[in-house]
Amino acid sequence: MKTKQTDFDILVVGGGLVGLTVALACGQAGFSVGVIDIAKPSDQLADSHDGRASAIATASFRMMRALGVADALIEDQDTHAGPINQILVSDGQAGQAPSPLNLFFDAAGIAETNAGEPLGYMVENRRMRHALHQQTKKQDNITWIAPARVSDIAASADKTTITFDASDGESKTLSASLLVAADGRNSFVRKMTGIGVTGWPCNQKAIVTTVEHELPHGGIAHELFLPAGPFAILPLTGNRASIVWTETPRAADAAMALDDDQFAAELARRFGDFLGWVKPVAQRWCYPLSFQHAKTYIGDRLVLVGDAAHAIHPIAGQGFNMGLRDAAALAEILVQARAEGRDLGDGFTLAQFESWRKFDNTVLTHACDVFNKLFSNNFGPLKHARRIGLTVVDKLPPVRQFFMKEASGQVGDLPPLLRGEKYS
Ligand SMILES: Cc1cc2nc3c(=O)[nH]c(=O)nc-3n(C[C@H](O)[C@H](O)[C@H](O)COP(=O)(O)OP(=O)(O)OC[C@H]3O[C@@H](n4cnc5c(N)ncnc54)[C@H](O)[C@@H]3O)c2cc1C
To answer: Is residue 406 situated within a structural domain?
Structure first.
């Protein structure tokens, strides 16, 4: 889409799930927003673009309701959001029954905090992306600029200016008070502005697909810890589940190379027969996994959000949720800056964003990395200790409740959107 507007309050580079949410939250709060993406919108919206489904925590889903995105997930009176009522975490071996020492989370255990809602919802990313696009299109103050390749960024005393190559091959410029980098884990903006990261590869890949199964799953998410990493069975709408099967890179490449029947058999061996027959009904995707955290989230008239700031292992289904919390906090800080007559890109505004989000994200990114290391191995004493650890947490209601509240995203200083409050 083309635009004649060249000056915005906010420019978002990266119109993925997090960038779209930032644009929508800020657009609904009354700011003019430009969203620049390197990909064509039609490519991003193709079903083949992203095979993942995301566990959306209760608080994050409340935000999606406030933004109108939850309504946009409804089609023919049915929602594409499947409730997660319970989570069962167990340790096991492929082809063997899970260890009886396990951990069980039930939404009923935090019914008061959760107002009777489930622990979260599973939504396919392709559905979420469509819903976010649909909502942003309703905002006259949000402008799409795509496909476009950013080539230069220059911040001055009163604005930031980006230069980009437009789809017609011309080099153009846009300016704004604030630039938001939401361009994913390999963020061009982060690299271009010299912001470093701490990070390491996880030596794992995640195979993702969708399966159909014979029996209803009852909204139970299963996380089975196998020696190479977690094997997650995540309840989608209907008798369907999203699979995240973590393996060593070599084993993942081998599984991806199997023909359909061999792959289905190997997957069924891990899945077991507790839901009757099971068969893959979508293509397979494979994602290399790594840990990465930006050394700072802010620069000159710049903030980093989502995977551009922090990319983590999907073991706890938190990456997108963290990006949503970034988006909600940023929108609130910008609304306050406007109310106080401050510049959206001044140092005080940006420092508030960093202090609100960096500590939380640091704790969660490292916790996910430690959990993954603890659970993705077959070392005897460690295996024994973690099985006992799961059972201890299971048998201590306050500790179990703490983990459930964390998983449902209801702890800490929640910005208005995560409490379900709207800007418009
Ligand atoms: C297997 C797996 C399962 C997961 N499951 C969950 C889950 O259950 N729950 C959860 O919360 N999280 C989950 N995550 C994490 C979640 O998917 C990510 O955190 C989330 O997608 C990050 O979104 P983003 O918008 O920050 O980045 P991206 O989705 O990477 O989007 C980046 C956008 O920027 C654009 N872009 C890239 N480069 C440029 C450029 N130079 N110029 C302009 N645009 C550019 C891209 O086209 C894209 O649109 C999972 C991750 C994996 C790998």
So the answer is: no
